[in-house]
Amino acid sequence: MRFSATLAIHGINPYVPVDAEQAERLKQGWRKPMPVAVRINGAPREAWRINMMPRGDGGYYLYLHGEVRKAAGVEVGDKVEVEVAFDEGYHAGPADPVPKAFEDGLQADPRAHAHWTALTPSLQKEVLRRFSSVKSEAAKARNIEAALQVLGGAEGRFMARAWRDGAVVSPPAA
Predict the structure, then answer these.
(1) What global pTM score does this model have?
(2) Where are the extended beta strands (E) located within 2-155?
(3) DSSP single-letter state for residue 147
(4) Which in 39, 45, 122, 156 has the greatest CB count within 10 A?
(5) Is 18 strand, coil or helix?
(6) Full DSSP string of 113-128
(7) What residues does each domain of the chain span?
(8) Digit-coded pLDDT (tens) for 12-67
């Protein structure tokens, strides 16, 4: 499918809006994150694989990674030509493993588990990437403990964000 749109921003995330009618043309009846291949103004050369995120009204946010925007030479506010196709073969999910200590902590605290499952897939992925990126086991343990505390409902900071009642209340610090 091809259409024109203006690159907008949601929080800190640049995106192209995909309305409900367009989404239905891509995959009829789909209501969860939709795997797609996308190109903006003909770039990048090989279509970028990503999940469009539901807006709640039948439409989607087609968030655009920095590499896609750079390849297309576009910024927020620019009118763009979008090529998007449903991508049956793309199954995004956490690329990094769930540490056993974190899994055990979620099992032990139903409230933390509920808040974890309510996070967006991209934020879950970012948290798991954080656990995998720390160098020492002690640092990993501190990060897991901090994550479990904020997911359990404690007010605090984790991953440069303020958290309250198991949810992010501020975007990452610049």
Answers:
(1) 0.56
(2) 2-6, 8-10, 13-18, 34-40, 43-54, 60-63, 79-86
(3) H
(4) 39
(5) strand
(6) HHHHHHS-HHHHHHHH
(7) 2-86, 100-168
(8) 889 999 999 999 999 999 988 899 999 999 999 999 988 899 998 999 999 998 88
Instruction: Pick left, alpha or beta for residue 75 (phi over 0 → left; psi -120 to 50 → alpha; otherwise beta).
Output: beta
Q: What pairing do the DSSP bridges indicate for beta strands 13-18 and 60-63?
A: antiparallel
Q: Using an 8 Å Cβ cutoff, are 85 and 3 in contact?
A: no
- 14, 132, 133, 129: which is closest to 82 by C-alpha? 14
Q: Is 15 exposed, middle or buried (0-12, 13-18, 19+ CB in 10 A)?
A: buried
* Domain 2-86: CATH superfamily, name plus number: AF2212/PG0164-like (2.40.30.100)
Is residue 90 within 8 A of residue 38, CB to CB? The reply is no
Q: Are 49 and 37 in contact (CB under 8 A)?
A: yes
The pairing of beta strand 13-18 with beta strand 8-10: antiparallel
Tell me if 118 sits within 8 A of 167, measured CB to CB. Answer: yes
DSSP-derived 3-state class of residue 163: strand
